[in-house]
Amino acid sequence: MGVQGMHETARAIVADHKGILAADESTGTIKKRFDSIGVESTEENRRLYRQLLFTAAGMEDSIGGVILYDETLRQRADDGTPFADVLASKAVIPGIKVDTGAHDQSGFPGEKVTEGLDGLRGRLEEYRGLGARFAKWRAVITIGDAIPSTACLSANAHALARYAALCQETGIVPIVEPEVLMDADNTIERCYEATAGTLHRVFHELDVQGVDLRGTLLKPNMVISGKGCPEQASAERIAELTIRCFLDHVPAAVPGIVFLSGGQSEVEATENLNAINQVGGPWPLSFSYGRALQASALKVWAGDAGSADTAQATFVHRARMNALAAAGAWTAGMEQPVAA
Ligand code: 5MM
After folding, report:
1. Which domains does the chain have, with CATH numbers?
2. Of ligand 1's atoms, which has the minimum distance to the CA of residue 261?
3. Which of 36, 184, 223, 274 has the greatest number of beta carbons closer than 10 A?
4. Mutate to test the pocket of ligand 1, among 21, 96, 138 (most ligand atoms within 8 A of CB)
5. Is 167 in the pocket of ligand 1 (CB under 6 A)?
6. Omega into 174 within 30° of 0, i.e. cis?
């Protein structure tokens, strides 16, 4: 795909207020999700669950792209159609997670650096042949005593930029995901500082390494209070600080910002995205949620084929609520009762 094609792909994923389904849980993470509903994490159960999501009628109205895991990109629906083709036939663009995980950073206790650059050029070529049109790489930034360090921000930004450059060489749109975790007890102001520092480094490295911003998407955290912070910021404050931070650090050439949910509840993630869009900025502001799109649907399914239709309707509802939020047009009254 030429440069123009990558620009079009990036724009298409977030067109009409659509967002992304992050269904790229690695084997360890999906096992945790399945453990929570008492389902064994076999390859076949993973296939059945992902099939349920991808074939849900109407998901394509709110979802412009799906991030897959290596195993899932190689799997097929019951009728033998590869999942990438199932999605493409609904005009949903298939993507692939290509990092190999965040590992302890040598010399920097409590911090992580994401790996996966070795052999990436070859893997990207194979993934493109299997139908992937975009990719994702997630860096993990932790807030704590005297962290994040410059070394952590710098190593992760460098890796994200090298990954992005390799993707574009292959004609694949890189999603650049620097996630500042919301698991600590920090204030929203501390999250602002860490996010600002992270984005500053990331866009500097993308520039140094010649990445074409128009052929990328940014997948960041919202600027938000840590989970353990006694004073939780309102949606309006989250929106105000998120937009202020992004206006200062993200070039307008980026064709879309797709937030991760990071441990927010489903409705919180929708409410906050809606508030962010009510402030607005020069970019489409949408979603690339994993847990905040799947949590209720997963519970409803619980491995029971008889619940598949209700689970699909639950997922499609969540996707629709988030597409409305991406337009700043969601209200709490549009919600339906959440699964028990
Ligand atoms: C779906 O979760 C993704 C994969 O995580 P692992 O590599 O740990 O299995 C994850 O990268 C995800 O895409 C983002 O963190 C956003 O997901 P959430 O659940 O935070 O919206």
Report:
1. 3-334 (3.20.20.70)
2. 21
3. 223
4. 138
5. no
6. no
Q: Is ligand 1 within 6 A of the CB of residue 262? A: yes
Q: Which ligand 1 atom minimizes the distance to the CA of 101?
A: 7
177 as an active site residue: the answer is yes
Catalytic-residue membership of 219:
yes
pLDDT tens, per residue, the chain with 340 residues: 788 899 999 999 999 999 999 999 999 999 999 999 999 999 999 999 999 999 999 999 999 999 999 999 999 999 999 999 999 999 999 999 999 999 999 999 999 999 999 999 999 999 999 999 999 999 999 999 999 999 999 999 999 999 999 999 999 999 999 999 999 999 999 999 999 999 999 999 999 999 999 999 999 999 999 999 999 999 999 999 999 999 999 999 999 999 999 999 999 999 999 999 999 999 999 999 999 999 999 999 999 999 999 999 999 999 999 999 999 999 999 998 655 4
The answer to whether the beta carbons of residues 218 and 251 sit under 8 Å apart is: no
The C-alpha angle with vertex 76 and arms to 71 and 78, in degrees rounded to 5, equals 135
Residue nearest to atom 2 of ligand 1 (CA): 25
Our answer on whether the CB atom of 24 is closer than 6 Å to any ligand 1 atom is yes
Task: Tell the residue number behind the tokens 């309707």, with chain if given.
Answer: 313
Amino acid at 237: R
Which SS3 state, helix, strand or coil, does residue 108 take?
coil
